[in-house]
Amino acid sequence: MKTVKAGILGIGNVGTGTYRTLQLNRDKIIESTGMDIEVTKILNRHPDRDRGITIDKNIYVQDAYDIINDPEIDIVVELIGGIEPATTFMADAIKNGKHVVTANKAALAEHGKMLQKLATQNGVMLRFEASVGGGIPIINALTSALLSNDFTEILGIVNGTTNYILTKMTEDGADYEAVLKEAQAKGFAEADPTGDVEGNDVANKLSILLSLVFGVEVPPSRIPTQGITAINKTDIAYANKFGCTIKLLAAAKKVDGKVECDVQPTLIPEEHPLASVNNEFNAIFLHGNAVDDIMFYGKGAGPLPTGSAVVGDMIAIAVAIDKQSAFDSKPLLRYDSDLEYMGEGKNQYYVRLSVDDMPGILGNISSTLGRYGIGIESMMQSTHSKNADETVPLVFIFYETNREVLDEAMEELKNRSFVKSVDSVIRVEK
Ligand code: HSE
């Protein structure tokens, strides 16, 4: 039996999940691949912290370069997260001829092209299955079984923390802050959960998917991004009355030779396959010209599901090392398309206003919207559920329009004396 040696940088949630997966399934891995994967070193800056697993403390190191420069180590597994120093560690490991496995969506979204190029130049593999969708093997599928397709659409729920929060707010009427704490305790959230709730984690993952699916390089900073911090129980309840549920979606469409993409909370009809994706589950829904609609579903966050994806990559590398086929392997990320990138395209929107309760207001609002070419698909006026200040909520679903046009119309409405506030604007996916 051959042994492949690995060093792990970082032993937080994903690191412990990876180590546990290897412990749990070692015999199974040996049996199915004929290879043993031995973790010989782990970067752990807090060796006395209880990680809830048994690890021989002798394999802990304090300096990442004890792993990166170790001639015995074949695979460096980067699980510290964040852009730096993780990117430098990965680049240096690659330059040292190590294969690299990472779960680091932020580093890949920002520096994937450079790391991929470096890996190709150095004849090593760079694998990152855990970076999108946790345990879902979406990257494997997109870079192998689905290569025969030309895709036109991606819709993804790719953040477990925010999906967990939205699910609990919808199903149990739970409070945002309390559920966020629960998600952190379960190991779904990032060390700093701002990136989860503000949508940046989703933008990073969408940036990776855009390379894999459309071959375009779109840095996350160029993806219009909105998180879930403004979502409240009132909008969740109205969405429900419209037969919809609110999810934080990564969306991308190929339209007339251009790629439109954005990240924002979205009302989706209850019958849409993504509507029933709850808690920390993720799903990626794609439309390909051969496979048609296809959806991948699984746990998108949490130590073991993510560990499953990391170990899957380690196994793929171990097997390739054994067959000596790793070194000519095709890069997974690609940036070869001449598709033009643009931000958010035309969408339908849900809008909630608070207005004075008096005659003529609805007519005034709809004629203003008409001047902007915005059509109303549905409307709800709850005069029986007045706001505390005696204004009433007016809730609309508009036909497709550009976001800029909608924002201009809302600016104009905000200045009307009878419009107290524009409370919410949320995209609708039909
Ligand atoms: N914080 C991420 C999430 C972890 O909640 O989905 C998986 O990338």
Topology:
Blueprint: E1 2-9, H1 13-24, H2 26-33, E2 35-43, E3 60-61, H3 65-68, E4 75-78, H4 86-95, E5 99-102, H5 105-122, E6 126-127, H6 138-142, E7 151-157, H7 160-172, H8 176-185, H9 194-197, H10 200-214, H11 233-241, E8 244-255, E9 258-269, E10 281-288, E11 292-299, H12 303-323, E12 340-342, E13 347-355, H13 361-371, E14 376-381, E15 392-401, H14 403-414, E16 419-428
Parallel strand pairs: 1-2, 1-4, 2-3, 4-5, 5-6, 9-12, 9-16
Antiparallel strand pairs: 7-8, 7-10, 8-9, 10-11, 13-15, 13-16, 14-15
Bound molecules: L-homoserine.
Distinctive features:
430 residues, alpha/beta, Rossmann fold, Dihydrodipicolinate Reductase, domain 2, Alpha-Beta Plaits, 3 domains, ten-stranded mixed beta sheet, six-stranded parallel beta sheet, 14 helices, 35% helix, binds L-homoserine
Fold and architecture overview:
This protein has 430 residues and is α/β, with parallel strands linked by helices. It folds into 3 domains: 2-134 and 302-328, NAD(P)-binding Rossmann-like Domain (Rossmann fold, 3-Layer(aba) Sandwich), CATH 3.40.50; 140-299, Dihydrodipicolinate Reductase, domain 2; 346-428, ACT domain (Alpha-Beta Plaits), CATH 3.30.70.260. It contains 14 helices and 16 strands. It has helices at residues 13-24, 26-33, 65-68, 86-95, 105-122, 138-142, 160-172, 176-185, 194-197, 200-214, 233-241, 303-323, 361-371, 403-414; strands at 2-9, 35-43, 60-61, 75-78, 99-102, 126-127, 151-157, 244-255, 258-269, 281-288, 292-299, 340-342, 347-355, 376-381, 392-401, 419-428. Strands 7, 8, 9, 10, 11, 12, 13, 14, 15 and 16 form a 10-stranded mixed β-sheet that branches. It has a 6-stranded parallel β-sheet with strand order 3-2-1-4-5-6, with helices on both faces. Helix 4 runs parallel beside helix 5, helix 5 runs parallel beside helix 10 (200-214) and helix 7 crosses helix 8 (176-185). The protein is elongated. The mean pLDDT is 95. The structure holds L-homoserine. L-homoserine is lined by residues 134, 159-161, 188-190, 196, 201, 300-301.
